[in-house]
Amino acid sequence: MLDKIPTKEISDPDHSDKKYSDLYQAANKIYVRKISGFYQNIRKYTGLPLLLGFVILPWLMIDGRPAVLFDLPERKFHILWMTFWPQDGMFLAWLLIISAFTLFTVTVLVGRVWCGFTCPQTVWTMLFMWAERICEGDRNKRIKLDSQPWNTNKVIRKSSKHLLWIAIAFITGVTFIGYFTPVRELLLGFVPSVNDNGSVGWNIHPAAAFWTLFFAGMTYLNAGWMREQVCKFMCPYARFQSVMYDKDTLAVHYNASRGESRGARKPGDDYKAEGKGDCIDCSWCVQVCPVDIDIRDGLQYECINCGLCVDACDSVMDKMNYPRGLISFTSQDALETGHTNFFRPRLFGYSFAVVAMFAAFVYALSDREPLSFNVERDRGVRMYRVSGDDIVNVYTLKISNMDRIDHYYDIGVIGAEGFELTHKPVFLEEGEVFTVPVRVSIPRAQLETTKTEIYLTVTAREDEKLTAKNKTSFIGPETH
Fold first, then answer.
1. Structure confidence at residue 474 (pLDDT)
2. Both 349 and 380 in a single domain?
3. With a threshold of 0.85, does the pTM exceed it?
């Protein structure tokens, strides 16, 4: 599949047989026609829940804190009822790998449906296009408005559109930064307050204000102005999709054998006698395309598989009393042979990898204990000490309470008979890391070997299930 790059041919007066391509031509503005249909409804039903979830989550409270809060200064990552710490970075790596393989699996099966239905760039572009349609009207009205000279009506419509865009972008910026700082305090910080000396001030940290306005500005730029340019030239997914596509990948295809040759006609005409196909060349499939391509030219890397051209073509086919499916979600193999092979090794391999990794991720997450500790032999002493008839080893324990509540922890030792560890319970607040030295002793007469493996344990007094242990070695003198 070749990448289709928009070019402009430039003639050379000295070499009339040569043509050059201008890769730096300005992109034409796209006026997308509003269309209703099956795939447009899917875009709504998938996009709206994502938008609502994105906006609502920072406002939900669980145990007195936001349901989702990535507290970078404190290095705490609160996600619903769980709190993660930097040492839990393995889970993030797993999640990213699983997401990547899931994306590969979906692409092999149904093409770029992620881009067409759930990608944030697509969802926010849809939202901005809705605001544009509210203020300026549908496609023909927007074209007419842009061609008119500036007047009161045009200023009002354009200004209202940009004000609505700015409002949506600001809400997006506040919500996004609300995942990193409590959103209530963040939003109140943008409300000016009067100081004791009568001056107006802002109760917001400069960094929070900067990043909020930065992401608001990027939202305004990406969804309002750049739109399809992000998908065409900035998104790497479009570049490597061809590696994952095969003849049985479901994507938006135009049935050329049925549609060609194109031509206008009236309903009821015997167009087949004139050698025409079902395509009436209405160009609706181009007018509804958010990336401004003609699907009738074949599969192109710009296509995001949104299905809007399918809805547009089906509506035209209904008006002409022709069967639907001239443009449809199908595979190249189905167009050529009439069937699609869903049982293929690559798809099975990706699916198996995703299921296996997801199962391992869930098991590791469910088995995760919000308690960890490390054991180090005290470097300030020799291998062991002799205290009366006892052999003593000194260890340094670094205990991390990763639970969402405070705990008293008891420290113990597990080993052969005779090993003892006496230490007062250690109190750790939520998220606290505490270092404590401990002594393990055993009567010399009971020490059977020079080096003995033992386990040091840390157990929450209020919850014995919350426990952790580490293996270490107890060193003593040579035994005879």
1. 85
2. no
3. no
